[in-house]
Amino acid sequence: MKNHISHNIKYLCEQEKLTQNEFGQRIDVGRSVVGQWITERTLPKIDAIQRIGVEFNLSLDDFINKRLDDVERGINAFQEDSATYGNPILQDLLKSKDQQIKDKTLIIKMLEDEVTRLRGDVPSSKSRTA
């Protein structure tokens, strides 16, 4: 079964306007490692794939098994079709899914902040003395 990891890393870099170095920094790997993934010399380990999924709000299935540009085109076409036909049920569904994505992103950010605080990287506002 073909995977699309290399293509999708290139696509994410283009979409986010990231260099290989910047992409690597976001998922805690070096530029040369990202270059090896893009040129298909190596594949990312599962923990790196998981970090990419979290960082870019992607399902692992989409990231590995689908071309992200095709997925995005499909979503955009679906949104355009539902708007064209004025189907209120589909429009409500899309609004609901958009809100779920925003909620998940907020939860992930809150959890990351809490992990950082618990590691002691950032002092808690409750533990500060006056």
Automatic annotation (TrEMBL):
SMART domains: HTH_XRE. One of its GO terms (molecular function) is DNA binding. Pfam families: HTH_3 (PF01381). It comes from Cochleicola gelatinilyticus. InterPro entries: Cro/C1-type_HTH (IPR001387), Lambda_DNA-bd_dom_sf (IPR010982). PROSITE patterns: HTH_CROC1. This is HTH cro/C1-type domain-containing protein. Residues 9-63 form the HTH cro/C1-type domain.
